[in-house]
Structures are given as C-alpha cells and as structure tokens.
Amino acid sequence: MRFETYTPAHPAASLIESIFHFEGFQPDHSIERVVPTGHVFVIFELDGMERNTFDNDSLQPNASFRQAWVSGVHRNYISISAHPDSEMFVIQFKAYGAYPFLHRPMSELAERVVPATEFPAAGLQAMRQALSTSAGSEQKFAVAEEWLAQQFRADLVPPAAIVAVVEQLQQQPAAKLNDIMDSFNGSQKHLIAQFKKFVGLTPKQYQRVLRFNDVFQQMQNDQFLSWSDIAHRCGYSDQSHFIREFRHFSGFNPESFLKNDFPDDAANFFPLDRER
Q1: CA-closest candidate to residue 269, choices 88, 7, 138, 107
Q2: Measured between alpha carbons, how far is 246 from 76 in angstroms, rounded to an integer?
Q3: What is the DSSP letter of 259?
Q4: What's the angle, vertex CA 67, arms to CA 64 and CA 69, rounded to 5?
Q5: Helices 188-198 and 203-221 sit at what angle, rounded to 10 degrees?
Q6: Do 199 and 96 touch, CB atoms closer than 8 A?
Q7: How many Å apart are CA 162 and CA 16, to the nearest integer?
Q8: Cα 255-172-176 angle, rounded to 5 deg
Q9: Apex 105 CA angle, 103 and 111, nearest 5
Q10: Among 74, 106, 123, 221, which one is least packed by beta carbons within 10 Å?
Q11: pLDDT at 254
Q12: Residue 60, pLDDT score
C-alpha cells in the first residue's frame, strides 16, 4: 500500500492534525470497528466504491456513502466497511480545527457521518472531482491546500482560551479535569457551550475519549499487561470502571480484545470478520 502524508501551510497547519492519501489498501477483512479519537474527518473515496456504516449489534448496513463525506466527532465506536484496492484522501482536523473550514458548529455533526451533499457551500463534491483527476499525491495535496485556503474563515477560529483547555486536557491526567475547567476565565456553562461549538463534545466527554486512547497507548507499550496497572495509570477509579469504559468505547471487554490480537493492529481500527 502507498501512504503519503502532508502538512499544510499557515494558517491551516495549526488546525489540521493530518492530511493523507493512500491507495492499494488490501485488508484481510470487510468490516472494521473504529473507536473514537476526538477528531473530525473529511473523507474522499477515489476508487468509485461505495462505503457503508453498519449497525454495531447486527452488523447490517445502515447507511452508504460515495465520493465525499464528513465524520463528526464520536463518543462511541462505529462499524464501517473495508475494501480491497481502496484509494482514499482524508483531512483530519485537530479537536478544535474543523469549524473554520466547515462553517457549522461541531455539535451538529457529533455522533454522525454526514454526506457531502449536506455541505453545499463547502464544495466537497467539486473537490473530490479535482482530487480524482489529479495525478499523484503531490497534486492532490495542492488541491487540498487550495480548498483549505478558500474555505478558511478567521472569524470562526476558536478563542485561545478554548484551545488552552483542549491542550491541557490532552496533556494532563484525567484527575485534573475539574482543575482545568476551573481555570477557564468564564462560567462552566459558557465553557461547555463553547466546547460543544468548536469540539462537538463537552470537556468531560472529550476527556473520556482521550483517556481511552491513552489506554491503547499503554497496551501497545506494555508487553506484560496488567489491567489494574493500566486502569490506575489512566486514571480510572477501579478495574470495573476501566472495563465499563473499555466496553463503551470499543465494544469489547479487555480479555477478548487481547485474544483477537487487536493491539497489533492499526490504532483505532479493528477488524470484525478477519479469518484466522
């Protein structure tokens, strides 16, 4: 598989987590579970194949997507299709970075995967056409750079105080949540409203997503796993709390997660129907 990444120019660089283009993806499964990361994604398929989301319990298709779509920030895992010979182009925004480009409060997109047709002013379908006719990753990244420049609205950039809270939540342990919220120069109600607008979640919800992703990092770094140690390191009150959160965000209990060798897979994407 070919996988290329790109860092855009200012001012977009401070709002973008990653831009990447891949082709020739050959999965050994057809359905994969995606656990939340706290990001918003704009996704373009460049191979002409329809993508599906699935009911998490029955694994029956519940929606289909072509050309381009937006995946809002999620608090729960979702199930999506994986296809051989895939080619896709993806813009991953930082936690607070999508509003200046999509021009919609992130709370409207939370827990949703939204077709590009719901963003007529964003020109996502035209961008997909430009991407599909561009030769090679370098030209595709140039298309993305132009789109970011055209869409960017400085008046929708989050206030520095909100960025500071996001960054503190990313850097500080979960036990510091209340201290971080108290440090905000404004009411808690205003902080929560601003967080929903720019991030799509409340500070507490976002912190839970961050903590669960920290669990994955601990699992990948520790060859001799102790659930009680991981629960303690990541700030869970006890092991039962850790297990409940693990099931909430991944749909698995920790033991079955290990039995499926999921820590060896790509972070946040886990096959559901891989033959062994």
Answers
A1: 88
A2: 11
A3: H
A4: 65
A5: 60
A6: yes
A7: 16
A8: 95
A9: 120
A10: 221
A11: 84
A12: 96
31 φ, ψ to 5°? Answer: -130, 135
Nearest of 28, 42, 45 to residue 72 by alpha carbon: 42
200: left (phi over 0), alpha (psi -120 to 50) or beta: left
pLDDT digits (tens, 9 = 90+) for 57-82: 999 999 999 999 999 999 999 999 99
Query: If 0-12 CB within 10 Å is exposed, 13-18 middle and 19+ buried, where does residue 165 land?
Result: buried
Q: Token pair of 45, please?
A: 């398929």
Please say if the pLDDT value at position 109 is more than 60.
yes
- Bridge partners for 87 per DSSP: 23
Nearest to residue 116, comparing CAs of 81, 151, 141? Answer: 151
Which residue is it, tokens 């905000």? Answer: 184
pLDDT in tens, 165-189: 999 999 998 889 999 999 999 999 9
Query: Residue 254 and residue 252: Cα distance in Å, rounded?
Result: 6
CATH topology of domain 2-155: Jelly Rolls (2.60.120)
pTM: 0.94
Is pLDDT at 263 greater than 80 in this prediction? Answer: no
Provide the residue ranges of all domains of the chain, joining segments of one domain with +: 2-155, 160-271
Terminus-to-terminus CA distance in the chain, angstroms? Answer: 22
Superfamily of domain 160-271: Homeodomain-like (1.10.10.60)
